[in-house]
Amino acid sequence: LISMLKKNQTIVNLLEKYREMSLLGKINAILQWDMNVNLPPKAAEGRVQQSAYLTELITQKWLDSEFRKLVEAEESYGPETVTKEETAMIRNIRHAGKFYWNVPMKLIIDFSEVTSRAFMVWQKAKAENRYADFLPHLRKVITLSREIAEKLGYKDNPYDALLDLYEPGFTTADCRTIFGTIQPELSKIIKKIKDSRDYKTESPLTDGKNKYPIETQKEFADLVIRKMNYDLEAGRMDISSHPFTETLGHFDIRITNRYKESDFRESLMGAMHETGHALYEQGVAEGYDGTPLDGGVSLGIHESQSRFWENQIGRSFDFSKFITPHLKKYYPTGLKNIADTDIYRLMNLVKPSFIRTEADEVTYNLHIALRFEIEESLINGRSNAKDLPEIWRQKMKEYIGVVPKTDREGILQDVHWSNGMFGYFPTYTLGNLYAAQFTKRMRSEIELEKNVEKGELKPILIWLRKNIHQYGSLYWPKELVKKVTGEELNPKYFLEYIKSKYSKIYSLK
Ligand code: MG
Asked: Which of 70, 123, 425, 467 is most buried when burial is the number of CB atoms within 10 A of its CB?
């Protein structure tokens, strides 16, 4: 159990102010959730204004001079006088506050306007496959991102400043080491898989001839998320065009899902992924509610929880054994004669493709390696935005072995850069690597196979709660990984996992 918070008076005052920011943030989350799930089309403009007003209120609170004075009252925060929790709270406030305090208001507003416009142009440019239309907007976003990085400050590389916004404590050098280790190994495995006699990229089960009724898919997703012990009295699952998880309150953690009639896998994996995020949020110590320790610590650790459930559990053979009888019952026409080994293969088809969001476990991180290299080079002014489509094609060929014919399937596919989210992509890979390392540790402590095969997932959740969830944002990612696994993040666990799993599936030597 986590020790109680001490009552340092400065911190009590600080937390009172912070609580208001937290409340406004949760209210804004309700508006966001509603916008993505329920909003009638004509309500969009009104909603943007409501949300912008709340953001302005939150910003004012961050800039409030009384609040800043409390944060900077160093003398009351000596290590002897404060608890571990209090020290972490101050650290988190300073980390989050850096953006508001270091970046001039004019730059924040410019950035928000430029990215809003860039996002709209990107949508159209992608639909029409016209990179040239997006280019001038992307240039502006890059220029402002570089200015923001300068204001935030960094030691070695301006990209560090941006990366740190999403994954505190991680640097460009860390990313280089990680991608430098996994990229060549993964490219080799992909080549072997493509040369193997078991290599096929399609299955008759999902070629469109079988229909998996959407109502049934919803029921099935519901069964699985209940098995995962998602507390549906403190959450719910709705539909949106892109699945997401939103924290609206400590007892209100919601997920969304989407459904494709020709393929039952997308909604199943989507439900497991988002429930992984939701379980993390539901597991944070209740006493942290409304404090800077509330919620998951970083995007990478958050993604480790979603990818753990989606891949380490959902795509395991033991889980295939568990769901196969259920799948046969739910989809009697399509899957009547299916075996657990068929389901396992179907869940783990490796298909080198253009689109990151549809990528399998083996190719996924190569999509990220490519984006990391491109954005790091853009932020450092080493490459020119006009050359990106060509750089993209070269790297796709080199890393994944396929070349997109259009920019829509290439440089224009992701939303992130139009929104100015440089530094975000690496957290996806970090999530996969953390998940593999956590799983290795978990396996040494609990009996995973037998439980998963029976659909008995409670011991897993208990382990995650005890080792990761309860701490919320108390430990930063590097510290947390060390605490949980006894060592720093090490990409070898992910590589070992991929090699052993896919060597068996594709009978590789
Ligand atoms: Mg996710």
From this structure: 425
